[in-house]
Design goal:
mainly alpha, 7 helices, elongated, single chain
């Protein structure tokens, strides 16, 4: 039963990560329910895998490191919570891979946003009628001002790469 249940929990976690990434792109926030749900899924996966204590310690260290980055102004609070929660969902032995892939995805994201800040013009004044139009205008404004990155997308991307191997394997 355990080999079937853990990939299902991780697959649900992957869907939550995709939702968090899209929400972060749209409004630069991640709802608190997403890290909470990921942590719950991760705790269940760690209990089923029999490595709950190691998983809690490793995820706690990752969360504390991310919280320190938040405290120093280098990371958003939602991103710190999301990274800590996904560290509980991932197998403890895969945390170095997780952190590396998140960092690489963050680098790609930063380069993309830097390049786009030179290519995208500041939006014209005036309201947008559609939801997508409003999102596009907000994103163009953020790009023109070199605003904060939607780092939950990097966390989601790196996590998806690592967690997909759990589902597929």
């Amino acid at each position: 039963m355990v080999p079937v249940v853990i990939p299902v929990l991780v697959a649900i976690g992957l869907a939550l990560l995709l939702g968090a990434a899209l929400h972060d792109i749209a409004v630069r926030t991640v709802p608190n329910c997403v890290p909470a749900a990921l942590a719950g899924l991760g705790l269940a996966a760690r209990v089923l895998a029999g490595d709950v204590w190691l998983g809690l310690v490793v995820a706690g260290v990752v969360f504390l490191a991310a919280a320190l980055l938040w405290w120093r102004g280098m990371m958003g609070g939602a991103d710190a919570k999301l990274l800590g929660a996904v560290a509980l969902l991932a197998p403890p032995g895969r945390i170095p891979d997780l952190l590396l892939t998140v960092a690489l995805c963050g680098g790609v994201l930063a380069i993309f946003y830097l390049l786009m800040s030179y290519l995208v013009a500041r939006p014209a004044p005036g309201p947008r009628r559609t939801f997508v139009g409003r999102l596009a205008k907000a994103e163009r404004w953020r790009l023109s001002r070199r605003g904060p990155l939607p780092y939950a997308t990097a966390i989601a991307g790196g996590s998806m790469i690592v967690l997909f191997t759990v589902v597929a394997g």
